[in-house]
Amino acid sequence: MSTTGFNSQNGAGGGQTYANGPSQNPVALQQPPGVGYMVHPAPYNPMQAKAPMPPGPGLYHPGPYQPVPPANSYQPVPPVSSYQAPPGQNLLTRPPMGGPPPHTPPQSASPSPGPRMPPAQATPPPPAVSSNSYYPNPQQQPAAPAWQYGTVPPPMGAPAPMSAPPRGPMANHVNPAPSSPAPPQSSAAFSSVPPGPVSHNATQPLVPGMPPTSLHGYTQPGTAPPPMNPMAPNTYQPGRAPYGPPPTGLPPTGPPPTMKPTPPPTGPPMGNATPPPPKADGPVAGNGPQAPNSYNHVDNKMAGPPQPGPPGRHLGHYPSLPPGYQNTSAPPSAGAPPMHPAMQTATQPYTQAPQPYQQPPGGPGPAQLSPSLAALSLQSSTPEALRVVNLLQERNLLPAGPIPAPTPCLPQDLQKINCNPEVFRCTLTSIPQTQSLLNKAKLPLGLLLHPFKDLSQLPVVTSSTIVRCRSCRTYINPFVSFLDQRRWKCNLCYRVNDVPEEFMYNPVSRSYGEPHKRPEVQNATIEFIAPSEYMLRPPQPAVYLFVLDVSHNAVETGYLNVVCQSLLDNINALPGDSRTKVGFITFDSTIHFYNLQEGLSQPQMLIVSDIEDIFLPTPDSLLVNLNECKELVQDLLKSLPHLFEKTMETQSALGPALQAAFKLLSPTGGRMSVFQTQLPNLGVGALKSREDPNQRASAKDIQHLSPATDFYKKLALDCSGQQVAVDLFLLSAQYCDLASLGCISRYSAGSVYYYPSYHQQHSPSQVERFQKDLKRYLTRKIGFEAVMRIRCTKGLSIHTFHGNFFVRSTDLLSLPNVNPDAGFAVQMSIEENLLDMQVVSFQAALLYTSSKGERRIRVHTMCLPVVNSLSDIFAGADVQAVTGLLASMAVDRSVSASLSDARDAMTNAAIDSLASYRQAVLTIQQPGLLAPACLRLFPLYILALLKQIAFRTGTSTRLDDRVFAMCQLKYQPLAYVMLMIHPALYRVDDLTDEGALNISERTIPQPRIQQLSVEKLCREGAFLMDAGMVMYLWIGRNCNPNFLTQVLGVPNYTAVPQNLYVLPELDTAESQRTRAFVGWLRDQRPFYPTLHVIRDESQLKSNFVQNMIEDRTESALSYYEFLLHLQQQVSK
Ligand SMILES: [Zn+2]
Fold it and tell me: What span, in angstroms and rounded, lies between the C-alpha atoms of 1117 and 332?
């Protein structure tokens, strides 16, 4: 698996009938031939060659990012009625629909009396350092509430019916009172919207023939769904004032009454104690009717060939020197070639041998594990994981290659079939027996998931009977136990269930009477094609609606050409089938629809200028069957970029356009792709700039991280209720208030793409990235009308989710769309002591409709041991998973409390855990800052988080950049999050084939990862920094001439062009090696990182230097200073 990256998609092998999309990696590095150097001018920015700290605010180049002028300072906009169709528009006709709109000034220009949406919790004053902890504190039990942003409500009696429209305080960061019943839908949270019907005289009939009750997704059978009301007439108040904050910037006066703090994790049990709503994701399989099985693809192997173990460590030592210490250069990596960090989630523990899992009847399960687990306590004190490391002395802690996920301390036979950590991973691979033990460890307990990840091997099962626990509805999995051939015991609730007759037959071995050899019991990740019980309406078709900004600003960026061309190029690769539908909406100060009905000779543009009361002009012909109307669609895509070429319209009515798009998609559900290039300033959802660039660096704390209006969140929840997800592409040189706009994607399970300073001529590297990202976006797998439920063994409880979704009930996430690049995280607590358990299990089940209209269920199950000693807990800590979860928690804390509060909490996470380790685990006290080897990188990662764009202070960070980084930390799978936090630095001027990988006849050099310090740079070298979304290739002033000529094709250092962003294709071994390495790095992620070749004079050098995490900056400690600070606190 390690070498496949994103090159192969699920089920691509073996010719099975896998339903979704194309299977190539669309973002593979394919440098256009003949591109060569693309250079554009940039200001000269001399910087010190070896400056140990990045420049301060004074040197920061704000680039083209300028404060947005007040909305009312825009150039006078010609009335829409005088809109002159540019040449080419005669292709389209403009029917006399809608008169000219009232020329309303942007609503947000006037102060709004409406209350701002408060943060989920009242912000406590930043407590003293020691009390600002992430974990429950015996003295401060209610410390948790500050983390409640995104918290799932504690038990509320019966879970809300799944069909309830997701409005009101069920929102992600709202916590209903624990003991009160679910509040009514007309909740106080949105009580600022006056009740009462709003006239929608322009309401259009919806698509006929679609039963209204089918529109609410997978309703619990037997429950009458609420009547369809896709337009939510109470929700929109055309003409009302937006929910902007008062101009004084006063903080919110407090949460509405429905918002109560969530009790500390020691509260009453939830989740498993209450049976989840039955049939939420399908029926219980009993002794169902016997029916033949068909196996599209069954493969016992979920992982690739055995991977080499972690590369050898290189012990360096701090000289007994203060900061400014020197490094001993680490010896070259010995042994096996390292894997890239993006792959470091280590397939190592998953070195499945091809032999089938030999589970005896009555095989391993909680009841039968005693013999093999008896030896566990001896193994669990793994010497290496617990080896004491004095961080102040050991300098070179970074391994040469990736850090593998720790292997849970399970018996071999269980571990062999455990879930791949790239898909499912826990912060603690040994689960504490009690909450108090967990509290003592001071480490967060949570799961990180990448549930829809592209997999090279995925067993797919078609069966009329999906075997599940009758009590808790867990899917049968490798960690259940068979009491005999006819009975199996659930590993989550321990109920004994019957084995259905059908399950007695094993289609793999074609034998009868071996239920424990069925693929469901042999694979921790498996996909079922669901029978009809899992459908409450016919699976929806793939529906794609594109909503495009065509204002003057948008046209000026030139993005429309790229979108239209990319759609033309990939129109046959859109995932779907004969039912696939597409539609287009464009907008500036008005909304433009496109009639693409079959039979028309050309597309027809319909302009609706009444943005106060949006209606659909011809609802039946705006979303059309792609196959039947492909020519019209192609005609439209060819003409769209020219239609608005000469527009002078500067206003942006994004909110009304979104409302229109929602109306259009409501009857079916689907995906809405929104392209926006400026701050929306007209109609509902209008925003105004909240950023003062002059305050960026000096501000004590960061304001405006939460949305300015609840419009986008409310609309997102309406979308979620109608199975519509909204993906936002933000291309702008100016502040766009991503904190507000991003809500539209966050709560509808969409994604956010951000291209700051996008311009077709001025930022060619952004254009390239946009093109590659679009191709991936348009062609990757997609799941529609999805829900995901995460279950865990009785006693454990999930209480907070991170990612983009809406929480429908305590453990059910609503995902109108699910894509293979989305990550999720959850926090957990231990509600009941796990005293008699040796292992616990976690199961994530994702029910979705494939683009081919199949209802499918992907199930991942992970098994972990339970331990009762602190040292065992520490030994099993997964430092990357811990860091990733803390990052998500810190984002919530930044929004609900403050950035400084979040920063303190992260620092304290390191202090508290190391203090606990020192006091409770170490038997012999020694001087220094001591950490177990498995956590030796924890302080470094915490420091890296403090310097990450999302959380840094003291440097000029644009608000949208910061908010986008926060979105990424919560939404990206762990492997990419780790690259954002701690980039990988390689020396690349001396690449060799030694230890290289060989993939598809390409030789991929594997240079070792260097520490992030300018001390590691040398003027004679060239260094590549991989920061996930961006790569920097820094060229030293005295760089090896061979590298300059053979790789960059320039005679000397001064000839290296400014703003070079592609490596020339030279016919030299050095060029091929370098390009192969960069291409290989890019191939391993689903987005396209830009590459910037920089030298000391480059404008971007400050970004490069800011990633030198171990160095001191004006406003942040060096790594060594940070360690000294930690030591001081730990020793207190
Ligand atoms: Zn069960």
Answer: 29
Q: Is the pLDDT of residue 320 over 60?
A: no
What's the gap in Å between 28 CA and the centre of ligand 1?
A: 43
Give the largest CA-CA distance in the chain: 85
Residue 999 vs residues 263, 400, 655, 1005, 1085: alpha-carbon distances, Å: 52, 20, 48, 11, 16
Asked whether 1096 and 46 are in contact (CB, 8 A), the reply is: yes
Q: Averaged over 264-269, what is the pLDDT?
A: 34
Give the Cα separation of 668 and 219 in Å (integer): 15
- What spacing in Å lies between the alpha carbon of 373 and ligand 1's midpoint? 22
Ligand 1 midpoint to CA 474 (Å): 5
Tell how far the Cα of 521 is from the centroid of ligand 1, in angstroms: 15
DSSP-based three-state secondary structure for 793: coil
Q: Tell me how far the alpha carbon of residue 469 lies from the centroid of ligand 1, in angstroms.
A: 5
The phi and psi torsions of 582 (rounded to 5 degrees) equal -135, 160
3-state secondary structure of 867: strand
Handedness of CA 1031, 1037, 1040, 1046 (dihedral sign): positive
Helix (H) or strand (E) holding 160: none
Cα angle, residue 557 at apex, residues 554 and 559 outer, rounded to 5°: 80
Output the pTM of the full model.
0.72
Encode pLDDT of 923-940 as tens digits: 887 889 999 999 999 999
Burial class (CB in 10 A: 0-12, 13-18, 19+), 168: buried
Backbone angles phi, psi at 824, to 5 degrees: -140, 155
If you count DSSP H runs as helices and E runs as strands, how many of each does the chain have, helices first? 24, 35
φ, ψ for residue 817, nearest 5 deg: -130, 150
Residue 434 CA to ligand 1 center (angstroms) comes to 21
Q: What is the pLDDT of residues 779-798, one digit of tens each?
A: 999 999 999 999 999 999 99
Query: Cα(194) to centroid of ligand 1, in Å?
Result: 45
Please write the tens of the pLDDT for every residue from 963-998: 999 999 999 999 999 999 999 999 999 999 988 999
